[in-house]
């Protein structure tokens, strides 16, 4: 009888110690797991928020911060204008003309690399941004003419991470945009897989000068691309570029690069002659939505015209013919400028 009890006790105590030891390990494991989770989760959050605060200077209340979703900024259309630190005047003209009183579903950002900018230059830009809140300063990008494509990728990365948007418009400092018309048109455009602009499928490979592409071998011409004075991408395509950016070949020309990256995709390439976005302006037509190669004076005139008369041009004028892109023929025959009725 006594022996049995001792055996039972031993067994029980054996079980207890096993359970006890297991319990300790389990608790330790959970503690370690939780501490790791807390570290990474909070760490990421606070870095992201810290960055947001630095980059936008808008978030101040820490109670609100904890309620903010992953992407702080939400908008229908984000407009990127590629700029450089010294071109303050170009930015001023855009703010005073076509970007004056943008609707609240549109965000405009001037993209500027400040990686190697001297301290006093940074101070000036920060002051400008404190006032206008429209600079996207890329901290790790150094401005140079040879890396506009990297700059585009860097800005796409920032937007993909921080902005919840439907469409992106990319333009230059000498691009005049009729934002209200763009918005109206976008209402009836596909929400995804959209690549909208003025397409060229038979552009010769640049072998000389600033834009020469030494490494191009894909074809005798560039793949069809929307010329860089202004084009629209839906957010899924921006995301596609970002997640593949490590393996995408970077070409000198940013617009050629985008066309090439999107080349194999099943997307809507919408050619629109109302995008006067070639490297030389085709003139002025009242139906134009985007007009490239505009001087400060041109921009003010176009803006004044729209305000006073509701029409873009002093007088409609054509410097050379345009074309309707023919997607049914080989690219070399895509773009014949023989129809004078196309604006
Ligand atoms: C940018 O310039 C800074 C300062 O000259 C340099 O340290 C940095 O490596 C450069 N970054 C890139 C990406 O070239
Ligand atoms: C322009 O050229 C194309 C191809 O040669 C032809 O099919 C089309 O009819 C021409 N259009 C005009 C308006 O001449």
From TrEMBL:
This is Hexosyltransferase. It is a single-pass type II membrane protein. Its EC number is 2.4.1.-. One of its GO terms (biological process) is glycosaminoglycan biosynthetic process. Its cofactor is Mn(2+). The chain crosses the membrane at residues 12-36. The lineage of its organism: Eukaryota, Metazoa, Spiralia, Lophotrochozoa, Mollusca. It is found in: Golgi apparatus membrane.
């Amino acid at each position: 009888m006594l022996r049995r009890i001792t055996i039972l006790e031993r067994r029980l105590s054996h079980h207890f110690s096993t359970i006890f030891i297991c319990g300790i390990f389990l608790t330790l494991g959970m503690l370690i797991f939780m501490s790791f989770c807390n570290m990474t989760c909070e760490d990421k959050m606070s870095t992201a928020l810290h960055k947001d605060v630095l980059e936008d200077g808008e978030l101040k209340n820490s109670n609100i911060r904890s309620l903010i979703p992953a992407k702080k900024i939400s908008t229908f259309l984000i407009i990127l204008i590629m700029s450089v630190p010294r071109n303050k005047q170009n930015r001023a003209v855009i703010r005073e003309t076509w970007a004056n009183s943008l609707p609240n579903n549109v965000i405009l950002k001037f993209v500027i690399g400040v990686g190697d900018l001297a301290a006093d230059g940074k101070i000036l830009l920060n002051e400008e941004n404190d006032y206008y809140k429209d600079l996207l300063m890329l901290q790790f990008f150094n401005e140079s003419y040879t890396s506009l494509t990297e700059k585009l990728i860097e800005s796409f990365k920032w937007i993909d991470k921080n902005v919840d948007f439907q469409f992106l418009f990319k333009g230059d400092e000498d691009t005049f945009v009729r934002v209200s018309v763009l918005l109206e048109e976008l209402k009836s455009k596909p929400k995804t897989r959209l690549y909208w602009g003025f397409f060229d499928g038979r552009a010769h490979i640049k072998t000389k000068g600033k834009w020469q592409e030494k490494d191009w071998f894909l074809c005798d011409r560039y793949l069809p691309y929307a010329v860089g004075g202004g084009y629209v991408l839906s957010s899924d395509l921006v995301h596609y570029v970002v997640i593949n950016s490590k393996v995408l070949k970077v070409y000198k020309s940013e617009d050629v690069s985008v066309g090439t990256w999107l080349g194999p995709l099943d997307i809507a390439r919408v050619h629109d002659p109302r995008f006067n976005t070639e490297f030389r302006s085709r003139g002025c037509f009242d139906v134009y939505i985007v007009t490239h190669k505009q001087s400060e004076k041109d921009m003010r005139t176009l803006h004044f015209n729209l305000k006073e008369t509701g029409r873009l041009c002093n007088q409609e004028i054509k410097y050379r013919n345009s074309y309707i892109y023919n997607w049914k023929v080989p690219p070399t025959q895509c773009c014949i400028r023989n129809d004078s009725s196309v604006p």
